[in-house]
């Protein structure tokens, strides 16, 4: 009798703790490939918006900064964040375009990216990276200082 209960308990435990197997279907949702280069017209639009951003940052005109920022980041960006960006960038110097390309975010989308260096700085030790939306609005500015 004990053996019957033991056998039923083992079989019952397998049913209670058993897992349901679900079929997995993988869909191929490839996004449209971005061209390897950005047109000069788009680069000029992005550069103009970046220069407007720098001028507004220099004058501490946060309403003008808000005009060139993307809607996606307006709620995140506060005056404190802008002050930190201003501290990380020498807004009194002029900027030259160092490199143009795409920046891939964590969700897999590609955004236009322009890397700037200070005019006259041949060593490119300090590079400012600006990420844009396709329409030209700023998504992010990252002052990256390279160590010697």
Which terms summarize this structure?
148 residues, alpha+beta, 23% strand
Strand content: 15-25%
* Mean pLDDT over the full residue set: 81
**Molecular shape:** elongated
Structural class: alpha+beta
**Oligomer state of the chains in this structure:** single chain
What order do the strands of the largest sheet run in, or round the barrel if closed?
A: 1-2-3-4
Radius of gyration: 26 Å
**Main pleated sheet:** 4 strands, antiparallel
What's the SSE pattern? Answer: HHHHHEEEE
Q: How many DSSP-defined strands?
A: 4
Number of helices: 5
Distance from first to last alpha carbon: 81 Å
Q: Which range best describes the helical content: under 10%, 10-25%, 25-40%, 40-55%, 55-70% or over 70%?
A: 25-40%
Uncertain runs: none
Q: How would you portray this structure in words?
A:
The protein has 148 residues and is an alpha+beta fold. A 4-stranded antiparallel beta sheet has the order 1-2-3-4, with helices on one face. The mean pLDDT is 81. 37% of the residues lie in helices and 23% in strands. It has helices at 2-16, 40-58, 62-68, 71-74, 79-88, and strands at residues 95-104, 110-118, 126-132, 138-145. It contains 5 helices and 4 strands. The termini are far apart. Helix 2 packs antiparallel against helix 3 (62-68).
Summarize the structure.
This protein has 148 residues and is α+β, with helices and mostly antiparallel strands. It has helices spanning 2-16, 40-58, 62-68, 71-74, 79-88, and strands at 95-104, 110-118, 126-132, 138-145.
């Amino acid at each position: 009798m004990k053996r019957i209960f033991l056998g039923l308990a083992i079989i019952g435990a397998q049913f209670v703790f058993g897992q349901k197997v679900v079929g997995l279907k993988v869909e191929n949702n490839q996004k449209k490939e971005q061209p390897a280069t950005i047109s000069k017209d788009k680069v000029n639009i992005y550069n103009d918006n970046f220069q407007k951003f720098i001028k507004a940052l220099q004058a501490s005109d946060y309403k003008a900064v808000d005009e060139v920022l993307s809607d996606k980041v307006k709620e995140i960006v506060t005056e404190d964040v802008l002050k930190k960006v201003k501290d990380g960038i020498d807004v009194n110097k002029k900027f030259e375009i160092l490199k143009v390309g795409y920046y891939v975010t964590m969700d897999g989308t590609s955004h236009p990216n322009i890397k700037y260096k200070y005019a006259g700085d041949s060593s490119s030790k300090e590079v400012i990276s600006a990420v844009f939306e396709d329409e030209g609005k700023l998504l992010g500015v990252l002052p990256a200082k390279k160590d010697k």
